[in-house]
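Q: Is it fine to ask for two folds in a single conversation?
A: Yes, each is treated on its own. Send the first.
Q: Here.
A: Result:
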Amino acid sequence: MLTRLFVTGTDTNIGKTVVTRALLQVFNREGATAIGYKPIAIEKHETPEGIRNRDALVIHKSSPVQVDYEEINPVIWENNYEEKNRADFTQMTKGLKNLGYKADRIVIEGNGGWRMLLENETFYSDWVVQEKLPVILVVGIQEGCVNHAILTAQSIINDGVSLIGWIANRINPGLAHYAKVLERLQRHIPAPQLGEIPYLLRPEERDLSCYLDASTILAFDNSPLDD
């Protein structure tokens, strides 16, 4: 059974949170208890409940398992350029295992792209490789995305982790050659397309599960969490 997976993207602001929400909805629709996890969030937002991150709030709201916000998003950075922002892989793994005791499936959302550089001169992807997490790639359909998507897919595969597939997210409704871009991605990304999310207003409030290929996603298998 697919117990945990990592959501990455071709860039920042291309719909990783939207896809994370859609995946949680797919799993929960199938009767599994699924929860989202965003170990590190960038950009703080003050709320009556305390400092929060908007993307992490969407993930928290989309996770039916009742957990504290801090369990889903333990760390929030103002930006990724301060020396004090050092990722603690041990703490990230501890948080992942803790959620594993509370849910059947965990959807982990990354930051930026696959090769996001952290301030301690490591890549976020190093942790994904360490944890042997299978990956879903989100491709924001816009100018230049074919090159970014192919390079990202190759990098994921070369790192030795499983690329489950990719999901197209239409972030530019005015892109004239959308169908051609999609056809090129389908032809050149060495993994199946798992869904296509159209341009939507307020997707964080919608049921997005209908836009994903649930059968292919659910058929993927990976090892359960270690004790």
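Q: Second one now.
A: Result:
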Amino acid sequence: MSTDLTIVVPTYNERDNITPIIDSIRKVLTDINWEIIFVDDDSPDGTADFVKNIAKDDSRITCIRRINRRGLTSASMEGLLASSATCVVVMDADLQHDESLLIEMYDLIINDQADIVIGSRYMEGGSTGQGLSPFRLFVSKAATLLGHLILKVNVTDPMSGYFMLRRSVFEHQMHKLSGKGFKVLLDLLSSTTPGIRVKELPYTMRQRQTGESKLDMMVISEYYLLLLDKLVGKYIPVRFLMFVSVGVIGVFIHLLALSILHKTMALDFIYAQAGGTLIAMTTNFIINNKFTYRDMRMTGTGFILGLFSFYLACSIGAFININLSSFMFTHGINWALAGVVGAFIGSVWNYAMTATFTWKKPKSR
């Protein structure tokens, strides 16, 4: 029997929510041939094993377990690619999405009234209810506002994690998707071709019952990456822009350290500049390792080796930095300006050298 609807549910530490979400879907989708694909990012709480045990008794339940990969967008995309159904829907595992909306979503697509149907919290009749903390509500609305910079269709809730579409629509657009960020819908709507029919249905977001929100600085940075990729990715590599952004932070850290060492602790400028350079380099490595090169992030012994590799790769830039700024200072240039010029020139070397030696991609076999 063919499947009419695939429900894709990305998970990470959602073991306690698996049974409730399956039960709720069983109650609602009584007249549709459905399947659920859980895409689990190797949850420490054993979510994948729990789903697989349920799947032994229900062939409609499937689990894709991902190792060393994280992210809502990529997880959603893998689930969508695994489907063979006419329609696919993405929804969260935290029970905040109203499953009773599934029938209306499905009818709109099957009756050829829409290609994408979005569950909206921000249109008339919709609400975030008690589902978002003040911080998450602020981030959601700010992200929605910024998201309109790259949208090709007019919708009220492009950050919704609850939407249904024809599988053929996704497959037609999938090579245009960046795969970055934490909302695949925004990626999809910013990549879609003209003429796509999008409808929104209001729903009230429920309060999370168990588990914790996945919103953190990593998720926010991924959203920033998605915006950059859609706005300028055709012209400038997004990783370079991230590296430059981290470099700007490093300049301020460098100046702060230089000010403390030279003005407060009265170290000779050349020693203060060397200390500021080392502190800035260390900070830049940590931030770049966590965000810019997240897909190649080093941990444990690799982190230490990577740090020293970073130092080595930046050594030429640091040498130019220290000596150029020292030369400028001894010839009457203001200490802050001398420090900025030295740091900037050094950063030109840093990106090329670290991309080559520190975070180099493994050779394909």
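Q: Anything structural to flag on that second result?
A: Two points. The radius of gyration is 25 Å. The mean pLDDT is 85.
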